[in-house]
From TrEMBL:
Keywords assigned by UniProt, alphabetized: Amino-acid biosynthesis, Cysteine biosynthesis, Pyridoxal phosphate, Transferase
InterPro entries per UniProt: Cys_Synth/Cystath_Beta-Synth, P-phosphate_BS, TrpB-like_PALP, TrpB-like_PALP_sf
Database matches in Pfam families: PALP
Domain Tryptophan synthase beta chain-like PALP: 7-293
Record-linked PROSITE patterns: CYS_SYNTHASE
Family of this protein: Belongs to the cysteine synthase/cystathionine beta-synthase family.
GO molecular function: transferase activity, transferring alkyl or aryl (other than methyl) groups
UniProt protein name: Cysteine synthase
Amino acid sequence: MIINQIKEVIGNTPLLRFTSSQLPIPERTEIFAKLEFLNPGGSIKDRLGQYLVSSAVRAGKLKAGGTLIEPTAGNTGIGLALAAQAYSIQTIFVVPEKFSLEKQALMQALGATLVHTPTKMGMTGAIKKAKELAQEIPNSYLPLQFENEGNPKAYYETLGPEIAADLPETITAFVAGVGSGGTFAGTGAYLREKYPEILLYGVEPAGSILNGGLSHAHEIEGIGVEFIPPFFENLPIAGYETISDETGFSYTRQLAKDYGVLAGSSSGAALAAAINVAQKLPAGSVITTVFPDAGDRYLSKDIYTRTKY
Ligand code: PMP
């Protein structure tokens, strides 16, 4: 395959099948994981970056020489920086200090400038700082993935149709991690139209509030919320699976060691949640989940070698 631009290989990722011979799930049940770490920027957010930048350029909100500013845990920054390059647009990302150094280095490698906010202020602190910067910097645009309808739309138009094309017969449940909520809401809405009976389960780490728990620090990176995403308003959600750091990291290590899948901790959490859902559903169910990013961007956090979990 010959391509002219790296963006041509964003999306169209494969679904990896897991069966009852590999995992503690009912016989004939299958779990399919969409391998989003195979995108060129190493995460699902390459899709979002392309979508948000190209729609802002089309709408005249961003022009060559302008500046895109965004609060991000890292993967969105990488996806946005990749997309912005093609239009000669500068990028500034506001990153809470706790997020992985590798993701920060990758954003910088793609030409981005980083601004840090204190870990204890969470994503809310990063959002506030990004809004302040956008007021100060001329010709700037703030996509704000946490409230931009383009976020779920990016997945409604790409990830959802890809899954439906590969699994045309039926899907019993869709299980996906919730960070901004875009992946879950956009893909969930598309699949619900295709398969009206499908059950939608969100995944959060312990320390996130979706199941009514108290907000506290967690080590699984990329998922977990401090507020309910606005995209969930009209979504019929079957439930949320709350996964402990211990369980999430244990599955992340197992994915690497037993299946050659070098994914981040939100993928381990997604697999743990998909197994929980599979155990609640009848034998023969088809469950689809998403492995959002690659694990090598967490090596400095001992993702595969930690002994604590
Ligand atoms: N996993 C990882 C590693 C992520 O970076 C993100 C995005 N923060 C997610 C999952 C969740 O995706 P979304 O923002 O679409 O909910």
